[in-house]
What we know:
mainly alpha
Amino acid sequence: MRSMSARNRSVAVLAAACLGLSAVACGGGGGGKTLSKADYLAQAKVVCQKGNRQLKSASDDVMAKVPPGSKLTDAQITDFVRNTVIPTIRDQVKQLRAIPPPKGEKAHVQEIYDELEKGLAALDKDPKKLTDGSNVFAAADALAQKYGISVCSTTG
């Protein structure tokens, strides 16, 4: 098993990556307004940064309750994933869907979103994937990188 610090890094980094992918993935609905790709990315970045802060804070809270030298239990991981990570990402998705995608980009964004949903389903099925080195969002991340979005998948 990993040390507490490795698990803490895993939770923080993967939670931030989860949000980063949702920021790219969700440009669905919105009113009739058309944004440039740069404007879309800027708006998505704001939503993503807020979500990253929320997940980082939640991760810090969880780790603060783990005694020094101890590891997160499977129950703690499951609770964090199902009650914090997944709902937070889904909330970000909802907010980001309200941002209209750039003209002609809806299909690209939807493809990323579909892959993100697959990752969320995998994480819900096996919450330990958040800390075991798995990347349930690898396909979504690859599509996001191809689309040109990388800022939200960092922890900065």
